[in-house]
Structure formats: structure tokens, C-alpha cells
Amino acid sequence: MDISSGLINWYRKSYRELPWRNTRDPYKIWLSEVILQQTRVAQGVGYYYRLTELFPDVKALAAASEDQLLRAWQGLGYYSRARNLHIAAREVVNRFNGRFPDNYYDLLQLKGVGPYTAAAIASFCFDEKRVVVDGNVLRVISRIFGVEAPVDQPSGKKKIEKIAGELVPGNTPGLFNQAIMEFGALVCTPQKPACDECPFTIECIARQKDLVEVLPVKVKKTVVKNVWMYYLVLKNGSDVFIRKRSHSSIWKGLYDFPSVDSEYRQDISKVFPAFAEKYGLPTGVFIEKISSEFVHILSHRKIYACFIEADPGKNWKKMEGLTKVRLSDLGQYGIPRLIERYLETREA
Ligand code: SF4
Fold first, then answer.
1. How far is the CA of 17 from the centre of ligand 1 (A)?
2. Domains of the chain by range and CATH?
3. pLDDT band for position 248 (50/70/90)?
């Protein structure tokens, strides 16, 4: 069977109804693609609705503040995606007079838009013949065509791109790209692919050679670093002090409590003097409560977090960079999921 037509035929019968499937608006396709990087479809749908409602077009997104966008993005993680979206929206307004770029090379000029996203938008919205190679495509092609070269190395990736380039039809590149990605998401999945229901059981080399479990080959392993975070929740009645993370960090632009980070688990009695010095706390600060440890897993980090609630006393002078807010109003700020989890347990 011709693989391209087989994929398109399968897609026509089996695709999932998703909100971004009914549009060729490049702004909306861009939003959906950025949301879906590192996010499952089931979780991404809600965010897509929320973002398109709050910011219905690129001008609305450009006019929003970064805080507004980060608040809407809260819980999705990988906040650099949201910061880049915001910068790129302003680029569209300022450099492209508010008209979304309509070709691969112009799209590549936008902040955060790499070859994958540019190819997806160009092919889905403008039928430009471009190859979209994401994790699904790497997996499907490496299995059907029996590519044993590591797909996370340049030579292996090049092989896959070459095959994908030969498969993508000139008349319906967008449809094909969506079909192969959807096929990878629903049939040729990373674990337990549905080989028995697959239309390519005869063509698939991985299946013939019993390599389904082996392909695609990857050599890089993700290194996960352990980090211990000790948060200081300074309270003043029903108010708390928060800071906006401005330094380079995964949570840049979000709000949380002052913290001391460490590569090792520390004794609270040793951490507290470091806080006292850093935030000019008087001696005799009253520690009210120490939370149990929260384990928070990110792609490259395993965070062990502890929250120390303390009353700094009346004479303490608030340090620069800290903002006093009502604890009950904290939800109005963009906060990392970890802080949200801590607040949930306080309310429980
Ligand atoms: S037969 Fe199995 S491994 Fe091969 S393409 Fe189909 S689902 Fe993927």
C-alpha cells in the first residue's frame, strides 16, 4: 500500500475532533502547536479554549501584559513557551503589521518558532510543502521503514526527514502531516502500539523483523537533577510576602515565596539563618509551621520542597523585591503549580 495515501485514508476515518482541527487561522494553529509541545492533548484542549477566549487574535495577545498571559498559562509548565508567545505576538504586530506570517521563512523569524512549528503552520494553514518531524513522526517512520539509526542523532534524524520529504504529497501536505502525527498518537504509540489494527502490517519493517519494541533507537538519556527548595512563607495576619521571579529560571515571571535552593537535603535549623540573613529577619522570628516535603517532578528536575511559615514580627522592614498580598488573593497571580499544590493542602 502507498504509505502516504494509507495514512491520509486512515486519518479521514479516525481523526479526533479537536478544536484546532476546524480552523486554518495561523494564530490559532500556532497557539495549539505551542500548547501541545510537552503537553498531553487532553490537558491542552482546556488551555486552548481559555487562551483563545482571553486572547482571540494575535493583536489581543500582544496587547496583554506578560502577567496576564502567565496567569492564563498557569499549570501548563514550561513557561518559556508563554514568554516566547508573548514576544512573538508583539513581533507580528510590530514587524508584520499585525498580519500573521504566511510562509515558512517568515514564520521562522518569530521568537520561539523553530523548524517544526514553522513547518506545521505553513503546511496546515497555507498548504506549503513542508515536512513536520515531531516525536510521533520519528517513531512512525523509523518503524515502518525500519530505520535503526538513532533518531536523536543528526544522521538518524536526517534519514527520517528524507523519507518524510518523499512521503509528503504536494497537493495536501497539511493533511498528510496531521495524518502521520495523529497516527503516531493513536495507533503507532510509544508503548503497546496497536499493530493488530494497523493498516501497514504488511509494509511495516519493524513488525516483520520484530523490532517494534526496539525502534525508534535513542541514545540520549534525560538527566534528572535533584533540587531541594526551602520556601519561606512570611506572614502578616492574613497577608503573605511574595516575589516575582526575575532571574533566569524555569519560572521566570511567575510569583512565589522567597526561597533558598540547595543540591542537598538541609536541616531546617541550618537553612533558617540563611533566610534570616538574606531577608534581614530579626532574631526570634516565630516559626509557625513547617510543611511536610512536597515532591514535584519536572522534565529535568526533581524538586523536594518544604514551606516554612513564619511571622517576622512588627519591626521587620519589608525587603526590596517582596510584595505584600492577601493570601486569599494569591490565585490572581501567575504562580507555579508547586505553589498551587502547597496552597491546596493549606486549604484542605
Ligand atoms: S505495525 Fe505496529 S509498529 Fe508498524 S506501523 Fe503499525 S502500529 Fe506501528
1. 23
2. 3-208 (1.10.340.30), 225-347 (3.90.79.10)
3. low
Residue of 143, 112, 128, 121 lying closest to 27 (CA atoms): 121
**What span, in angstroms and rounded, lies between the C-alpha atoms of 165 and 169?**
9
Q: For residue 158, how far is its CA from the centre of ligand 1 (angstroms)?
A: 21
Sequence letter at residue 64: A
Q: For the segment 254-277, what is each residue's pLDDT rounded down to a tens digit?
A: 999 988 888 888 888 778 777 777
Using left for φ > 0, alpha for ψ between -120 and 50, and beta otherwise, residue 57 falls in beta
Active-site residue, selected from the candidate residues 33, 91, 128, 309: 33
Rg, the chain, Cα only = 24
Burial class (CB in 10 A: 0-12, 13-18, 19+), 93: middle
Q: Pick the more confident residue, 50 or 288.
A: 50
Pocket of ligand 1 (CB under 6 A): 143-144, 187-188, 193-195, 198, 200-201, 204, 206-207, 212
CB 180 within 8 A of CB 186: no
Lookup: cell for 171: 497537493
Would the pLDDT of 281 be above 80?
no
Within the chain, residue ranges assigned H as helices are 3-14, 26-36, 41-54, 58-63, 66-73, 80-95, 104-108, 115-126, 135-144, 154-167, 173-186, 205-208, 268-278, 337-347
Backbone dihedral angles phi then psi of residue 230, each to the nearest 5 degrees:
-110, 110
In DSSP terms, 240 is beta-bridged to: 235, 325
pTM: 0.81
For residue 287, give the nearest of 274, 272, 265 by alpha carbon: 272
Residue type, 27: Y
CB atoms within 10 A of CB 274: 14
- For the question of residue 288 being annotated catalytic, the response is no
